[in-house]
Amino acid sequence: xxxxxxxxxxxxxxxxxxxxxxxxxxxxxxxxxxxxxxxxxxxxxxxxxxxxxxxxxxxxxxxxxxxxxxxxxxxxxxxxxxxxxxxxxxxxxxxxxxxxxxxxxxxxxxxxxxxxxxxxxxxxxxxxxxxxxxxxxxxxxxxxxxxxxxxxxxxxxxxxxxxxxxxxxxxxxxxxxxxxxxxxxxxxxxxxxxxxxxxxxxxxxxxxxxxxxxxxxxxxxxxxxxxxxxxxxxxxxxxxxxxxxxxxxxxxxxxxxxxxxxxxxxxxxxxxxxxxxxxxxxxxxxxxxxxxxxxxxxxxxxxxxxxxxxxxxxxxxxxxxxxxxxxxxxxxxxxxxxxxxxxxxxxxxxxxxxxxxxxxxxxxxxxxxxxxxxxxxxxxxxxxxxxxxxxxxxxxxxxxxxxxxxxxxxxxxxxxxxxxxxxxxxxxxxxxxxxxxxxxxxxxxxxxxxxxxxxxxxxxxxxxxxxxxxxxxxxxxxxxxxxxxxxxxxxxxxxxxxxxxxxxxxxxxxxxxxxxxxxxxxxxxxxxxxxxxxxxxxxxxxxxxxxxxxxxxxxxxxxxxxxxxxxxxxxxxxxxxxxxxxxxxxxxxxxxxxxxxxxxxxxxxxxxxxxxxxxxxxxxxxxxxxxxxxxxxxxxxxxxxxxxxxxxxxxxxxxxxxxxxxxxxxxxxxxxxxxxxxxxxxxxxxxxxxxxxxxxxxxxxxxxxxxxxxxxxxxxxxxxxxxxxxxxxxxxxxxxxxxxxxxxxxxxxxxxxxxxxxxxxxxxxxxxxxxxxxxxxxxxxxxxxxxxxxxxxxxxxxxxx
Length: 801
Fold this sequence. Notes:
By secondary structure, the chain is an all-alpha fold. The protein is 63% helix and 1% strand. ARM repeats lie at residues 672-699.
């Protein structure tokens, strides 16, 4: 029967069940107006459908009326009914003939070339037959109508395909043999294709049919084997479709398919992880092993790692504790996978992973882990220790565990050594645990063996871990490290080679530069060794490359550049002892480079180190300045002194009274550095201010003309800034340096008279005189005496001496 033009079609377009054979009136129930299935007779001989007459009697009772006949309205003495067996058999025979005739019509109509209305009516007849008398499915199978219905899925009409899908669903309901017929050939593949290519109603019908098929365990494997089936079904469950039925049926189909472990693994690989986690929690030991093993191979994003840790973390830790080695291995590899993210690592810590993990790592005895699994344990421990989460790591350095780690490092292969070093990297990154690690390394003398890993070339991860560890140790063991690097062949050169590699800046390069930067600045032997291996030439080339934009590496460029600048600055600490240092600084114009680096805004440490380097170089200027020789006397001048003219040389340095330049003599005045250093006196970082003030103080040192040095500072507008540093009294060290400079400034009477009018200056000096260390108090006293000598202030401090 054909429905309305919008494509919606009812399987029952009439109250009477249409038949191919004539319908006898006796077959029709007077209440339902439909052919009866279970006819029963009342005491008055009237026949009705059992369900309908029972409903009538109930209505009579509910309304308080006596039971009556629906046709005659006469009261009945009893509601008892008698089955009309003969009539029921007659109806069944009629229905069988009628259904057979309908099926025959359907076979004639179900061809793609027939009219759409005929095809739709034939499909409707098949659905009616299957719904009314379930046994007729056998007739459908025998007549091979299923294959004819399947052929309708090839129709170009959406309506035909939709109704064919609905018909197949009715045919296979509860009938495994029909399901097997439908699943033959490429029908399942076609259904999967419909999940993405059909309109909403077609997709709903396709997924409903797949749901019916999935009730058969044998067909679950068939559906799962179709390329793209699981991805599409999982996609439907997570979609925002307005058709809730599609989402629900897709989800229930997947639930049916979860009976297959292979399909569960495939689902997990496509992002539906809960079935796998469920089997890991509640499955048999064999299933748990299988699921844990697969989990260890899955790529997981960070959110999923947290979910896994929360759901099965405890189960995995229990498997790790078991005596079964395959289970322990599977659990360890899964835990390795989920421990690399901070969120999931926190969960693992909370459920107690650390004690069994440490036990597995250090235990030697029956059923101990083989080395390949100890490597996995070390990896998990390294992941947890290095996540940045501030948990109590003290237990990891108690009971000689650091010594045990060092022992393992010296007695295992590169793979596990790398992970153990990463554990130590994490422990030395924590202020609470680094002292224990430093103590263990110092007492065991392990620094020599740790330094040797720098030369490893065949394992980049191992070398990186060792350099990061040494970098973390360098603030606490700088002298030991310097001695080890100078005392062992090749390690210092290897570090320099790593730093100078022509690659985008790496974490290893930044760590290597940071390590060398932390070594003692004034270690002459180390600096000489670095000169021998050509380190400074490579360092300055890298610095210039970064400044010019030739060397890239956004993530590590800042720490790398800072390390390079600190390494380069160390050569300025030995210019008074090593002639090669002066030669290098002149050849590469090091003073000019540091002058430019003073302006590295936002990089406080670089500015501080640059100012310190300029101070060191400036202190050597007086020794390097060349005073020009006077011209030879003429004949008269050589005989008569009155004929000699005074020798005048133009262009001499204002402070050093010789021929100066920034490149050759490192002169701050000639290099225009004074103004840049003065600008740093207002810096927020007190260490930058200290370094800048120290560099400026080199212009007032003994051996120089202090008056000229003060005037140079005055011309650069530096005196107000220096006085302000004294007034702020930010640190003891800064105050000490400021008092020293102010005392020298106040030696110049003109400037002293001008600045001494400020009462805040006097108060700052008095405070320093009363509260500073002995040497600073003496200098402050001298400064106050300078003020007291000025007439306008005479008698202000009569008793100060």
